[in-house]
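Internal ticket #5521
Category: modeling
Description: The requester needs a full-assembly model to guide mutagenesis choices. All entity lines are attached below as received. Residue total reported by intake: 766.
Assigned to: D.W.
Attached entities:
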Amino acid sequence: MGGIAIGQAGGPTAVINMSVAGFLDHQLSSRPIYGVINGYEGLVNGNMVLLQGEVLSKVQRRRDLPGASLGAGRFALDDEKIEKAIKNLMKNNITSLVFIGGNGTMAALNRISKMASKMNYPLQTIGIPKTVDNDLDETDHAPGFGSAAKYVAHATRDISCDLKAMSNFEQVRIIETMGRNAGWLAMSSGYLKKYEEDGPHLIYVPEKPIYAEKFIYDLKNIVHEYGTATIVVSEGASILGQEQVEQAEVKGRKVLGGISSTLKDLATEHLGCFARSENLGMCQRSFSLAVSLRDRKEAYELGKKAVEYINDGKTDVMLSIFRETGFPYSVFYSTVSLEKVAEKAERLLPVKFIENTGEFYEWLSPLISEGQNWKNPYLEHAF
Amino acid sequence: MGGIAIGQAGGPTAVINMSVAGFLDHQLSSRPIYGVINGYEGLVNGNMVLLQGEVLSKVQRRRDLPGASLGAGRFALDDEKIEKAIKNLMKNNITSLVFIGGNGTMAALNRISKMASKMNYPLQTIGIPKTVDNDLDETDHAPGFGSAAKYVAHATRDISCDLKAMSNFEQVRIIETMGRNAGWLAMSSGYLKKYEEDGPHLIYVPEKPIYAEKFIYDLKNIVHEYGTATIVVSEGASILGQEQVEQAEVKGRKVLGGISSTLKDLATEHLGCFARSENLGMCQRSFSLAVSLRDRKEAYELGKKAVEYINDGKTDVMLSIFRETGFPYSVFYSTVSLEKVAEKAERLLPVKFIENTGEFYEWLSPLISEGQNWKNPYLEHAF
């Protein structure tokens, strides 16, 4: 039996290193374990290191830090590069490949698996899901999302509380979230809302267009009624008839961002008040103090499960979280075909969750609130 | 003896409501207690409510939330308005006035006290310090700063970890912090830095000009050496020979913001790489999951102390935190003259802390790390 390689790809999350930790902690076989550096780029360029000694310690020390301890990032593959990658695996006698990532990562892993077959190289491939956007299909949710949703929910509630206290100075804040083409994270912003008067007062998701006139009309009413308005908009949402707002295009990938600024300008123009736009930025996927303990645990468990599936000889699969019940929260882990995941496009927020946000927050609750044993520190009255 | 009024002014913090809680929890006298709504605006417009029954419960329920439970905000005073404010106090027979705020709040309270004397109205005035910028003089530090510094330190460390994993996609992130003309918060961003290769690689504070050419030169070297660069800049910092960057002017007050975008443009132009600017925004002063327990406790203690000083008949004072020793952390509370606080300008970051950041982080440590009993959750290896 050859070696095993593990890599991380795409944008990191606050808990992606826990999947590596879960994997390494349970890796008891005598097969050599390699870490692939900087995702698929490292696979193509042969940048793989034996995870032992000081290297292993360094990776293990970063288990509770955000970012990706092996390096991740973005790297576009083509057939030629995939061939090169497989030759690198052959050269090192690596016969099992585990990658942690989202849609793009799984589609790429599926292509690598097919190419290996074509080249008659017996390669076992296993994907571990990861995404803050929660747009990965064939799993109830993916590690990384719970912590990001927890950040967004707290940031929105807290920014809204802050704004309410400043109503004689500023009246409108437009908060922009991550999510690409799916509204999961943006919709999570309302999770901690208790009363009508609290923010977020409006949430815009990519699944539905923004009607500019309706936005201005609603905004005026909200400011009139409550004094201030906290609005949340997903980076992927767009005004009817307009393109998504991009901040850059890097290596052929659109980096979304800026719709909050567009809406802020509309607010300033039509309400004549002081409005701010706030992009919640990279803290969403990395802020360590907002890590959901359940999210962290699931990331770890999936890493551990990957070891089991490797030993069982499973291949061409992505690990998946199946939810049995929400209250009490109960899940089991299983596998789905990589091919099936690769075929699916980004998973959007279902209509039922957009139309019935209560149902969405019930679904979301165990991912943020982490079960009965978790004590919410800001509700403790210690003094 | 007449009634007592308490108000909050300026931008809120994550713990400003704890000062109100500390005050109300220990207010055992039979004197009526009023809450001033929306800071000095409420005082001038006679918007004060008796803190009892449902109103009191509502304020107490918000003790652990950010924002200001009584409303705060900005309101410029002149002699005419101050006279009006004092007449409102007279009308309600309020003879003690407590305000929680920063530089502007203390200066205004001092003016109110002088005008009351002039009008022969016996008014007791007590200020409770609060600022995330830490630019209030005559106190070791002010409540609100510790939590904001904790947020900035974690955000910077975490964003830097995230960026390191993305080095094949983006190379530069410029993080902008609050702080107005003082660099306390920006400098706090380096508190969790462990190794040279980690961010922040450069910190720009308002106390020193930015040399554009030097910035580009340093940035190139950092990216060359480490692959990525995480740079922190205070909203009040500016390029030599240029004005501070403003995002708006509201009610005659400059709202700073945008220098990170200027630096990002320089990075893009001269390095030709993908750079992002990130304004940490309102989460710095409100994010509930980053509240420092020591900061929270001190905010509460100062509210409690204000009750004592009222009973002792102290007036024209601001409460102050005196640090006896850093390790073990030991402080006592006392008072300083409001007049003296009002005379002082914004307290800048001392040269010794700019030149010797180690000394600064030692000073900062107990405000963020909250003592021996505090367990850093992301360093626990529970799995």
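Resolution: model delivered.
Comment from assignee: DSSP finds 14 helices and 13 strands in chain B.
Ticket closed.
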